[in-house]
From TrEMBL:
It comes from the Bacteria. NCBIfam families: CPSaseIIsmall (TIGR01368), PRK12838.1 (NF009475). It comes from Floccifex porci. The gene is carA. Small subunit of the glutamine-dependent carbamoyl phosphate synthetase (CPSase). CPSase catalyzes the formation of carbamoyl phosphate from the ammonia moiety of glutamine, carbonate, and phosphate donated by ATP, constituting the first step of 2 biosynthetic pathways, one leading to arginine and/or urea and the other to pyrimidine nucleotides. The small subunit (glutamine amidotransferase) binds and cleaves glutamine to supply the large subunit with the substrate ammonia. Residues 1-170 are annotated as: CPSase. L-glutamine binds at S45, G219, G221, L247, Q250, N288, G290, F291. Pathway: Amino-acid biosynthesis; L-arginine biosynthesis; carbamoyl phosphate from bicarbonate: step 1/1; Pyrimidine metabolism; UMP biosynthesis via de novo pathway; (S)-dihydroorotate from bicarbonate: step 1/3. Belongs to the CarA family. Composed of two chains; the small (or glutamine) chain promotes the hydrolysis of glutamine to ammonia, which is used by the large (or ammonia) chain to synthesize carbamoyl phosphate. Tetramer of heterodimers (alpha,beta)4. This is Carbamoyl phosphate synthase small chain. It is an enzyme of class 6 (ligase). GO terms for biological process: 'de novo' pyrimidine nucleobase biosynthetic process; 'de novo' UMP biosynthetic process; glutamine metabolic process; L-arginine biosynthetic process.
């Protein structure tokens, strides 16, 4: 069955339908990873976005039960070049098409993803929607141009209740802005006694748990939409150890007086080089973000940049000069991607131990 991908600039790409028939306007973005499509589809940082893979062959190892980064994916669509209908992998339990139908995610394959990627790199991210061949394209383009990107996506993907994941190690409160399960796995692997809380939980309620530290997760959308969390983080930083990942990094920066801005087409992939400014070592990182911290705005704060992207020189990490608070723009839990940066979770544990000894 034929399906169309319509962009707000009027471009129309003809392909073959798979997945569901539930079409929504989304922000069309591209991801350069060669593997990890299951993790990408289930990463809630993609809420409101239509994801296009630049690697052509997708679906060849199917879908398994273990590699999800959330249970209810919020991606608005999936665009690929070549779809493998018959996966071959000992862990595979279903095809990609079956999974997309199950999770109500529409998809298209057989389109020129290279041409679309080049367009996005030139024009920036574009609004897009799938359509059937008999629909009024002019009316769809008009609708795309008049629509606005989503706001407050965090409220759609965050948990709405507080719940524990018990263990015997450091007590960590995880503020859920759309947290990947990879973050939970890495903290659990280190014995952390986790308490997961909604994004709008007040600082007083968080500190009432007497945490050894607070983890700020990844999440979707514009960080400036989450003002309630920015105010909370501003109160938390002087009181406990704080570690932020991706959106958490941006929220820490905003809470400390820095500014953020929207990237032209974002960083999405598992092969982004980042230099650690403390030791000069380069890490290959997994990334998924459309906003970044303004480096110049850090001058008026008590933050210092600790990591920097080698591709575009954007800010990839900060640390507070006075308090045990640090963050990175990329994903040290990877899932999927390289594991170069998992030492940051150990750094978080070490900081909590150091603070406990200081306050003993």
């Amino acid at each position: 069955m034929e399906r169309l991908l319509v962009l707000e600039d009027g471009s129309v790409y003809h392909g073959t339908a798979f997945g569901s028939d539930d079409f929504k306007i989304g922000e069309l973005v591209f991801n350069t990873s060669m593997t990890g499509y299951q993790e990408i589809l289930t990463d809630n940082s993609y809420c409101g976005q239509i994801v296009m893979m630049t690697y052509p062959l997708i679906g060849n190892y199917g879908i398994n039960r273990d590699d999800n980064e959330s249970m209810n994916p919020c991606v608005f669509g999936f665009v690929i070049r070549d779809y493998c209908e018959k996966p071959s992998n000992f862990r595979s339990l279903s095809t990609l098409d079956e999974y997309l139908k199950l999770k109500n995610i529409p998809g298209i394959y057989g389109v020129d993803t290279r041409a679309i990627t080049k367009k996005i790199r030139t024009a920036g991210t574009l609004k897009a929607i799938f359509a059937n061949p008999d629909e009024d394209i002019d009316a769809i383009v008009k609708k795309l141009k008049e629509s606005d990107f989503m706001h407050n996506q965090v409220s759609l993907v965050s948990t709405n209740r507080i719940f524990p994941m018990p263990n015997r190690g450091k007590k960590v409160v995880l503020m859920d802005f759309g947290a990947k399960l990879g973050i939970v796995r890495e903290l659990s692997k280190r014995g952390c006694d986790l308490i997961i809380v909604p994004y709008n939980t007040p600082a007083s309620e968080i500190m009432a748990f007497h945490p050894d530290g607070v983890m700020l997760s990844n999440g979707p959308g514009d960080p400036q939409d989450v003002q309630v969390a920015i105010d909370t983080i501003r109160q938390l930083i002087p009181q406990t150890v704080v570690f932020g990942i991706c959106l958490g990094h941006q929220l820490i920066s905003l809470a400390c007086g820095a500014k953020t801005y929207k990237l032209k087409f974002g960083h999405r992939g598992a092969n982004h080089p980042v230099v650690n400014l403390k030791n000069g070592l380069v890490e290959i990182t997994s990334q998924n973000h459309g906003f970044a911290v303004d480096i110049d705005s850090l001058k008026n704060t008590r933050l210092e940049m600790t990591h920097q992207a080698l591709n575009d020189k954007s800010c990839e990490g900060v640390a507070h000069k006075d308090y045990p608070c640090f963050s990175v723009q990329y994903h040290p839990e990877a899932s999927a991607g390289p594991e170069d940066s998992r030492y940051l979770f150990d750094q978080f544990i070490e900081l909590m131990e150091k603070e406990n000894q200081k306050n003993a």
